[in-house]
């Protein structure tokens, strides 16, 4: 364990508010960046269809989507900036003590942000001004930068959950190996899970909008194309996400047993532990099977660490269940669509399919946030797992509640305006070139 | 050695942000003062056209600086962000409002909406450089001690020197913007706008120059050590260089040679940043913490500098391409038809 390099926060009355402010800022940023991850690929796919078929509808749709992409990107940029400031404003002890250990990842991330910002601008403002092949080529660095940006920021989060690449001597961080820290063992499942989540959220959200339009009677070719393209991305990813989620759970079981116990609300160590589906219904031995792929494996309980080292279980357990339930449902929806499209070449005709689609977008966002709550709250009370406590990381400055309230108001305003403007974009006359 | 190199790379980022980001903020200042909806329309349209493709890339320089600081100088970063929490938070809020308003301005449907968004954009464009400037001023004034919120939460950045630096940041941004927009108007072949920006460039240039001179007086009384640094050796060379570049810029503006003035105006600002760095040397947080003491270990600095080198090799050609496309009008903003 280590205290902060700046000598500690003294007493910070508003630790909880600081955590909530951090959580709120993430909850705003992360859904937006899903569009930075996946929207470029969807738009480039449409542009590719246009180049291959010459059908102007694809181009018009790609142009329209790229406008929305730019708006969401801009909001992603400013909310990400808030996060960067908050690292220092809320957690200066954490940054002062470990900024050098994980900073390399953020350094590389900075450059991928540059690339994304540069090429997205050229892409969106370059329609009809660059030769078509150059234009579509510009889309690829945007896709790549979205991946690189995710990789690096997740490397930091993976490191916080599985800190490596340094030692502690006499309360000081020494022998820093930035490369080891960057490629920590939590990186790979978190990156894969988050990257796929990006495709699910962006795909289902866009499909939701078109599903709503379908219910309102707009069922022309433009709406159908938008729906099918967006939904295809999400539907193909959704079943894979179950496997990746299983990988995540097994990694957590192995490396963060107390977090696993919190996911399950398992108070005491058990051999052949059951899985509680909810409402007191239990599947015998299922937890041992899920977490270790062995029905008789022993699962550690919360009581194996002192109470002050236990994460809050209620919310973690609830979030985990929400994520798993939604993930399963969305995978089923995806399989339904893929099957119908593949075998019959059309969408399911029932109203329920479209109603489910409308719900799928918001639900995927809920799963996303629930997943992050699982990871982050499940890590508590540590900011750096088993090394530094969150209460030792916080700022000594006063006024956190004021900042929290101000930022909350700004975000509400931003969300309202963004919603109105995107609605307006959707209502603009849709021009397909002759 | 490595520490100085990391500081130098950080300062390259600071300079790029002050020039490129500063000009974007300055554009907001001219948006604010452009006059009524009708009279100000051409100025606002030019601002939008010039800024839209590049502001996000310009903004990343700020992120770059933050990341360099917290990786290469983590304890100084923690000290800075905890003591200067108020101005930094206000700047961050301003960035959100400004970016959001700018991105969404294009979709405004009614005059009233466009006005509200425009006002938000313009007002926050003035506040952000002011608060970032006061934060820099607080460092220069020696108001940021090492420790978790160890400095004065209000007093540290509300002294004469910090406030002064805040004002200087607003005015130099406005001046840079006027010059850049003048050049853009010339390229777009809009002589009335060139005229309009010439007036603004000359006016803000004179104010910026006067402020800079007054600044030396303020520094002399508020931070004598810094004053010594600015009036001797490399610091002095930078001050003279900045003054020369500033005067050259005014002459170029007078003759409407905006394309060249872009570079001289940028050089004048870059020289101020460099001069500050030299004058403060070897301190990062005067009066006690040196760059050397604040630096992370050599292993970290080496990895960071290699990453930054590789990153720059990718970044520079991409940025050059973006600016060439933007400046040649090939990314010109086009309004979609109104419903
Ligand atoms: C659309 C979003 C989505 C969906 C459908 C799922 N997840 Fe998830 N999950 C996330 C989005 C997410 C995430 C992106 O929010 C997290 C947070 C951290 C991470 O690596 O991914 C996450 C974390 C996360 C963790 C914690 C990992 C850690 O702390 O290292 C576990 C154990 C799971 N998930 C398991 C699952 C299972 C078993 C799922 C399937 C039924 C599932 N997730 C579906
Ligand atoms: C870089 C990668 C990081 C990611 C992706 C990440 C993600 C998240 C998410 C999504 C949440 C919860 C959102 C919610 O509750 O709605 C959260 C909560 C939180 N995060 Fe992180 N985080 C990261 C880094 C950090 C850092 C640097 C800190 C600060 C030291 C931090 C501290 C916290 C805290 C204290 C909470 C609130 C937990 C609680 O309410 O109990 N996280 N994070
Ligand atoms: C789950 C975690 C995260 C993911 C996957 C993620 C991904 C992304 C992506 C793809 C972008 C591009 C902008 C967009 O698409 O809207 C972005 C922007 C940004 N993010 Fe995040 N991010 C995460 C968390 C964080 C954290 C923890 C920080 C800071 C501490 C951060 C800081 C930023 C910044 C500063 C930007 C703006 C970059 C620019 O100016 O272009 N993000 N993020």
Task: Tell me about this structure.
The complex is a heterodimer of chains A (434) and B (339). By secondary structure, chain A is mainly alpha-helical. Helix content of chain A is 72%, strand content 5%. Chain A has helices at 15-53, 56-90, 92-125, 132-161, 178-182, 187-215, 221-255, 257-264, 286-292, 313-343, 351-379, 390-393, 400-427, and strands at 167-169, 172-174, 270-271, 275-278, 281-283, 298-299, 382-384, 388-389. Chain A has a two-stranded antiparallel sheet. A two-stranded antiparallel sheet of chain A has the order 3-6. In chain B, strands 1-2 form a two-stranded antiparallel ribbon. In chain B, helix 9 crosses helix 11. In chain B, a hairpin with a 3-residue loop joins strand 1 and strand 2. By secondary structure, chain B is mainly alpha-helical. Residues 335-339 of chain B have low confidence and may be disordered. Chain B has helices spanning 2-32, 41-51, 55-72, 74-83, 85-105, 111-140, 160-187, 191-222, 224-230, 233-254, 258-280, 291-294, 298-327, and strands at residues 283-285, 289-290. Bound molecules: CIS-heme D hydroxychlorin gamma-spirolactone and protoporphyrin IX containing FE (2 copies). One protoporphyrin IX containing FE sits between chains A (29-30, 32-33, 36-37, 73, 76-77, 80-81, 83-84, 87, 113, 116-117, 146, 149-150, 153, 194) and B (56, 59-60, 63).
């Amino acid at each position: 364990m280590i205290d902060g390099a700046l000598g500690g926060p003294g007493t910070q009355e508003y630790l909880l508010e600081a955590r909530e402010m951090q959580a709120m800022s993430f909850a705003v940023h992360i859904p937006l960046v899903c569009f930075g991850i996946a929207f470029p690929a969807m738009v480039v796919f449409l542009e590719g269809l246009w180049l291959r078929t010459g059908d102007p509808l694809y181009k018009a749709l790609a142009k329209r989507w790229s406008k929305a992409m730019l708006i969401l990107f801009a909001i992603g940029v400013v909310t990400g900036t808030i996060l960067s400031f908050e690292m220092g404003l809320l957690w200066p002890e954490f940054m002062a003590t470990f900024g050098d250990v994980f900073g390399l990842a953020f350094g590389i991330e900075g450059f991928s942000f540059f690339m994304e910002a540069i090429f997205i601008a050229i892409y969106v403002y370059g329609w009809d001004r660059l030769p078509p092949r150059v234009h579509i080529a510009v889309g690829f660095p945007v896709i790549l930068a979205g991946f690189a940006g995710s990789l690096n920021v997740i490397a930091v989060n993976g490191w916080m959950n599985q800190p490596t690449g340094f030692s502690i001597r006499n309360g000081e961080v020494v022998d820093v190996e930035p490369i080891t820290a960057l490629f920590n063992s939590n990186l790979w499942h978190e990156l894969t899970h988050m990257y796929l989540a990006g495709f699910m959220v962006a795909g289902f959200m866009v499909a939701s909008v078109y599903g709503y339009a379908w219910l309102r009677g707009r069922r022309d070719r433009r709406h159908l194309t938008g729906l099918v393209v967006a939904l295809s991305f999400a539907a193909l990813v959704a079943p894979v996400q179950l496997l990746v989620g299983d990988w995540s759970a097994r990694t957590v079981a192995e490396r963060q047993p107390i977090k696993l116990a919190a996911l399950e609300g398992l108070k005491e160590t058990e051999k052949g532990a059951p899985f509680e589906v909810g409402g007191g219904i239990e599947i015998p031995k299922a937890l041992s099977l899920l977490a270790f792929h062995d029905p008789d494996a022993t699962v550690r309980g919360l009581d194996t660490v002192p109470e002050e080292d236990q994460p809050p279980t209620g919310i973690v357990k609830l979030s985990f269940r929400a994520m798993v339930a939604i993930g399963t449902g969305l995978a089923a929806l995806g399989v339904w669509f893929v099957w119908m499209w593949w075998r019959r070449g059309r969408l399911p005709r029932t109203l329920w399919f479209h109603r489910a689609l409308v719900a799928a977008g918001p639900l995927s966002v809920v799963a996303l946030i629930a997943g992050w709550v699982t990871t982050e709250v499940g890590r508590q009370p540590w900011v750096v797992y088993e090394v530094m406590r969150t209460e030792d990381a916080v700022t000594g400055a006063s006024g956190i509640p004021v900042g929290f309230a101000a930022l909350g108001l700004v975000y509400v305003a931003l969300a309202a305006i963004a919603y109105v403007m995107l609605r307006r974009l959707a209502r603009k006359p849709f021009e397909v070139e002759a | 050695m490595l520490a100085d190199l990391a500081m130098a790379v950080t300062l390259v980022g600071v300079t790029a942000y002050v020039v490129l980001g500063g000009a974007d903020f300055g554009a907001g200042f001219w948006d604010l003062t452009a006059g009524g909806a009708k009279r100000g329309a051409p100025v606002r349209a030019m601002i939008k056209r010039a800024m839209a493709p590049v502001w996000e890339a310009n903004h990343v320089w700020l992120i770059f600086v933050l990341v360099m600081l917290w990786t290469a100088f983590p304890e100084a970063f923690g000290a800075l962000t905890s003591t200067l929490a108020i101005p930094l938070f206000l700047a961050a809020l301003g960035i959100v409002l400004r970016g959001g308003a700018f991105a969404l301005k294009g979709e405004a449907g009614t005059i009233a909406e466009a006005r509200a968004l425009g006002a938000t954009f313009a007002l926050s464009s003035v506040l952000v450089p002011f608060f970032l400037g006061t934060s820099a001023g607080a460092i220069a004034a020696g108001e940021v001690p090492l420790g978790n919120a160890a400095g004065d939460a209000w007093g540290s950045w509300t002294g004469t020197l910090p406030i002064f630096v805040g004002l200087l940041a607003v005015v130099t941004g406005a001046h840079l913007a006027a010059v850049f927009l003048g050049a853009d108007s010339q390229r777009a072949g809009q002589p009335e706008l060139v005229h309009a920006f010439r007036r603004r460039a000359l006016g803000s240039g004179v104010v910026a120059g006067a402020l800079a001179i007054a600044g030396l007086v303020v520094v002399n009384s508020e931070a004598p050590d810094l004053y010594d640094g600015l009036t001797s050796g490399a610091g002095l060379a930078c001050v003279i260089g900045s003054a020369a570049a500033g005067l050259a810029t005014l002459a170029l503006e007078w003759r409407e040679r905006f394309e060249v003035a872009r570079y001289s105006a940028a050089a004048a600002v870059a020289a101020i940043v460099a001069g500050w760095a030299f004058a403060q040397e070897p301190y990062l947080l005067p009066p006690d913490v040196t760059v050397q003491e604040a630096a992370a270990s050599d292993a970290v600095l080496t990895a960071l500098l290699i990453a930054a080198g590789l990153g720059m090799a990718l970044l520079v050609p991409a940025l050059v391409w973006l600016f060439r496309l933007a400046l040649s009008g090939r990314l010109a903003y086009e309004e979609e038809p109104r419903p």
